[in-house]
Amino acid sequence: MQARALYLQGKKQLSQAGCDAPEFDAAALFESVFGMNRTDLLLRAETPCSAAGEATFRALIQRRADGEPLQYLLGSWPFYGREFMVGPGVLIPREETELLVEEAVAFCGERKGHLIDLCAGSGAIAVTCACELPGMDVSAVELSPEAWGYLQKNNEALCGGRVQLHRGSILDPAMVDALPDADVILSNPPYIPQADLPGLQREVQHEPMLALDGGADGLDFYRAILTLWRKKLNAGGLLAVECGIGQCDILAQWFRGVGLMEVRIVPDFSGIGRVVCGIAP
């Protein structure tokens, strides 16, 4: 089949399946198989596709139509200008999480010190900070064996293994004791209330529940961060966390309740409170 005709068939199938961005998804999958971007599809519309390539493309379109995230099908996704390897078992990096990195970069500048990323997942936060902040020693804590593999690969591929990796739960006091004190602690922890998990969109349902389930009210991991990890923060250090819709105000109160100062809420691109920051006195 000719290139553009095959692409249009894939786009139509995704549209009929209810995908939010059928044109983008079909084009991304087509490029991943044939190396042809949207401009190529216009200029080389009648290029014949190989039978093997056509079969691969159709299989990917079907998986996407069935609800598998595009990011998993592509095998990587951009974050802060770098391509992070992702796949089943690891949380997909999202644009709003870049706000957390921006806060760390603005805070650290040229300073030297130690930064900890809790619930590191693919390593998007930790690895990016290691790349952007050469003066900071970076540690990452992750429990999931599936995510751990991606964390290792991204650490080696993107920053030469600069991030010190620690396998375990941030809820474990022994893990807290195993790491040195920090000048910056960052986290994008699980924050979806358990009752909301069944109602998540089908693509998110493919992501690991371990990275989404924040307990009954979605705030379990923030409690642990403020009770267990707050003591690891050096005087003048930054604690910053990403949170879900409607959670920022209570987290700001909790930040002040454990003595953090200069507490701020950073809105995302839609004006929703997404990151809460505080400074240790």
Shape: elongated
Low-pLDDT stretches are none
Largest sheet, spatial ordering of strands: 5-4-3-6-7-9-8
Taking the alpha carbons of the first and last residues, their distance comes to 66 Å
Largest sheet: 7 strands, mixed
Number of strands: 9
Instruction: Please report the first level of CATH classification, the CATH class of the largest domain.
Output: Alpha Beta
How is this structure best described in words?
With 281 residues, the chain is an alpha/beta fold. The chain folds into 2 domains: 3-66; 89-279, 3-Layer(aba) Sandwich (Rossmann fold). It is 42% helix and 20% strand. The protein has 12 helices and 9 strands. It has helices spanning 3-16, 22-34, 38-43, 51-65, 70-74, 98-108, 124-132, 145-159, 173-178, 202-205, 220-229, 248-257, and strands at residues 76-79, 82-85, 113-118, 136-142, 164-167, 182-187, 233-242, 261-267, 273-279. The strands form 2 sheets. Strands 5-4-3-6-7-9-8 form a 7-stranded mixed beta sheet, with helices on both faces. Helix 1 crosses helix 2 (22-34), helix 1 (3-16) packs parallel to helix 4 and helix 7 packs parallel to helix 8. The longest helix is centred in the first third of the chain and has 15 residues, at 51-65. It is elongated, with a radius of gyration of 21 Å. It starts with a helix and ends with a strand. The relative contact order is 0.11.
